[in-house]
Amino acid sequence: MKSFTGETKKPGVRDPDICVVTCAVTGVLANRRQNPGIPYTPAEIADECKRAYDAGASVVHIHARNDDGGPTFSPAVFARIKEEVRARCPIILNFSTGTILDDVTDQCTYVRESKPEIAALNMGTMNYAKYSPKRKQFDFDMVFPNTYSKIIKLLEVMNEVGVKPELECFDTGHTNGIAPLLDMGVLRPPLQFSFIMNVLGGIPGHVESLQLQTKIMPAGSEWEVIGISHGAWRMIAAALVLGGNIRCGLEDHLYLPNGEMATSNGPLVETAVRLVRDVGRRPATVEEAREILSLGAPR
Amino acid sequence: MKSFTGETKKPGVRDPDICVVTCAVTGVLANRRQNPGIPYTPAEIADECKRAYDAGASVVHIHARNDDGGPTFSPAVFARIKEEVRARCPIILNFSTGTILDDVTDQCTYVRESKPEIAALNMGTMNYAKYSPKRKQFDFDMVFPNTYSKIIKLLEVMNEVGVKPELECFDTGHTNGIAPLLDMGVLRPPLQFSFIMNVLGGIPGHVESLQLQTKIMPAGSEWEVIGISHGAWRMIAAALVLGGNIRCGLEDHLYLPNGEMATSNGPLVETAVRLVRDVGRRPATVEEAREILSLGAPR
Amino acid sequence: MKSFTGETKKPGVRDPDICVVTCAVTGVLANRRQNPGIPYTPAEIADECKRAYDAGASVVHIHARNDDGGPTFSPAVFARIKEEVRARCPIILNFSTGTILDDVTDQCTYVRESKPEIAALNMGTMNYAKYSPKRKQFDFDMVFPNTYSKIIKLLEVMNEVGVKPELECFDTGHTNGIAPLLDMGVLRPPLQFSFIMNVLGGIPGHVESLQLQTKIMPAGSEWEVIGISHGAWRMIAAALVLGGNIRCGLEDHLYLPNGEMATSNGPLVETAVRLVRDVGRRPATVEEAREILSLGAPR
Amino acid sequence: MKSFTGETKKPGVRDPDICVVTCAVTGVLANRRQNPGIPYTPAEIADECKRAYDAGASVVHIHARNDDGGPTFSPAVFARIKEEVRARCPIILNFSTGTILDDVTDQCTYVRESKPEIAALNMGTMNYAKYSPKRKQFDFDMVFPNTYSKIIKLLEVMNEVGVKPELECFDTGHTNGIAPLLDMGVLRPPLQFSFIMNVLGGIPGHVESLQLQTKIMPAGSEWEVIGISHGAWRMIAAALVLGGNIRCGLEDHLYLPNGEMATSNGPLVETAVRLVRDVGRRPATVEEAREILSLGAPR
Ligand SMILES: [Zn+2]
Ligand SMILES: [Zn+2]
Ligand SMILES: [Zn+2]
Ligand SMILES: [Zn+2]
Predict the structure, then answer these.
(1) Average pLDDT in the C220-244 region?
(2) Does ipTM come in above 0.90?
(3) Is the Cβ–Cβ distance between C233 and C227 less than 8 Å?
């Protein structure tokens, strides 16, 4: 049988046609003034996870928020989110661990306590800035530090409780920089990468960016694209063509391909899944995603 | 305003979001035993052109057939096809001129007489063979010759009657081989290329194949992908991502992305147009396609 | 120990630093009016092979000529060339089998009788033309046919007598077109490719051309670049950087990098070998080349 | 006349054959225990600049050191270095401005006072770490911060005194991150880039890395490669093939291509220049480099 690339499928090899679709339901940067559909509370977040699940996603990537929409790293809130999601659907949980601080105590705690199947892990340091073309100046201009010692702290907790790290790489040096972690044994194959495109200070949204990132990563790794802001749908299609998994959701881009604002994560996932099918692939079920991402049994 | 690549659109520059969708409605290789939807007669072909038009195509690429499905190069049949299509819709006509013979008298005649807006022109020589993996031998094994003198004969007629050549390139040497024709003045920019992928003896269906072909072609040229057989939908998505135009249709691939056989060209074009929209682009109207392809006024 | 790429060398894997340098000593297109150093007779050819050997080449690619410089496919002349070369040095012999005719009887005979270690084999059909920019017309305009049946005839003889085919690919379709031959078993890994760059009708001399050709070939194959005419030294350097073997010689390009005409193959090979060393690699000895190219013991 | 790529040279366009060779004579990381040839004092540094000049370099990149080899940012030392170099040869001066601190007061002072023709400018933030495979732990693990405000401070001084910034990019996000600076007008074309390869935390040394970096930079920019550590010669050859300028020197890599330690910068530049010539290019004179890099008249 032919795969979507036209080549004959090989038994015993990961089926290239299957695509793990992740939905990043909320993030922390955008708020309801920008898009009224953005969920804040655990129940709202869980409702969005259910919409993503119903539309064909098998993983949800989650940041926690206070009820007013501000970011929180409270382990209790993460626990509550897990509970609310689990009450609605068996979708795989991926919790963010990103923080601009060096201190990752809270992150370690909620990873250890909530044990999401996956925890996203920022793999390198970069500028974190926002420029206003209108005012010709920067709105903010900071460093987003992710030293090896910070990364190792998080990896050790993940290893301890059996949470799979998703290696979030904003540039090629983040991907290439895993070598010492592999050598130390704190990072263990098979690996799972997220290639974030189009963040100021990070790799730009070119097809060649994905080609270089996937060339650098160890052969046999799973990878997905995260296309931020405008150009997101093009990057999703590029990843589909190149054989990757994909991520969509209100954290990444607020708009549907036709330029209309998405009212919830549901239509975003529906569009992504339609793209998956229209290039000749199909979305992974939760069970298939568990196997593809080496996550073990549900818990 | 942002284009589908995330970059700001520039006034006066061809809108990168607009995609010319061509439908190759019949070809000459497949027959009704393989797919009952393949049109043979001028009326059947024209009905299929109308279905393609209704689904969002702005160009149809046409081979003529006898009523039993065999190929014909009869100028009268091409004239009849034009008449039947024109009676149904204003879609742009692209007539094949491909022949395994050196003699292109008939082709010159129907280009001169029917004056389709576009005529497809094979730009190089290659092997033309079909291998049977089952029987471990070749079904046929021939040369598909397209010498410069054959190409020049056809170009001179197209120049004479104002028919736009679509440069069909099966490999990089075909694209690169236009240099003498440009130098002689028999080929004149702006150029329009078709990059055919995945024919035995020609360039294989990789994203990198499209990247190299578009690097070789003169800057500012229009180009489309033609993905043959399995892998066709992936190649269409790749071209969409890379900013190209696309072609689909029963000549190129008989199946929808889910593996079901297409009952007509309509569903193939519908799928292609949905892909166009889902990456953040939109299909060209006939009027837009005329302008993008530099075809002049309808005739 | 680090290889020239900066990566650690792996035991049991072909040493990436070693580069097989081939010299194409004469060809058949250029003559002594163009370059007085071009050898014609078997003794002259063998003298050039010795100069190439002394300068660091481990393989010589040879066409036979009559004493007036015209091409010959006479088995007796090839036998004589072998004898003359063997009297001078143990360099590996690679005999051309290229012919614009379909009939390969002579080629089969001299491969069978002389049993060179390697025989070069053209892997596809293309236009074979020469354009004169001055006269704005073609000097000649032909088809260079290499159908599968012609290729198979030559391969069967090579298999019969244990001569290694060097797969000469002028474009990506030639490289990709080996699939049926592998499936039939007439072509057997490990394979050895030559990627010819910059012939009109073939792939142009871009770095990306080499990258695509090496992507298409089966993993684990050996490959060399053949850069024709101007741009040849750049293509040689590109192949060195990408890990390939290289070919130089009066057949491919008559000039040294500074634009001066080479007086013999010696200075061409000296320059190539200096490039090999200056990128951190080293030229293969004859013994190493035998092993790398899987040629077996001398005969 | 043909360029080294085989294409015809165009009048009025920067001659692609000319390559600006820069020598980074000392750096600050390596010391005389590692290589006795590393210069410390202004006179020693100037002697090395003269050796680089004599060997064919047209630019020297300089860090200042105390007499014991430790780093210094003393404006007086930079002034002294300039004086010593100018007493020996007219080579173009490129002063480093790199510092792990946020405070760039000293850097601004010596740029303003010494007015080197060029000042190197780090264009982004990244991890700065060194891993010991032997001890399976990090020797150090820090952030190398280069926020926009730090970059802008340095750019403003360079603009004020007419010093050309050389944009040192360790990853693609550094190259892509110039957009706000161009929009603010603090960075002004034509631009000059250095693409540093193979630093932990930065882009790895692949040919594709250079291809992506040069795709991202604004068209018409000048660029050079800086290949750090093993793999350096391969990266230099890659840049030569891709049309870039090159840098070598004891700051970047202590070894000649054959693995021997270089006794001074002279043999490193000699090797680089030989590579330049052997791919068919030639090293820029100081005057040509001034014009290519838009540096204006000597001062
Ligand atoms: Zn997130
Ligand atoms: Zn056709
Ligand atoms: Zn030859
Ligand atoms: Zn430096």
Answers:
(1) 97
(2) yes
(3) yes
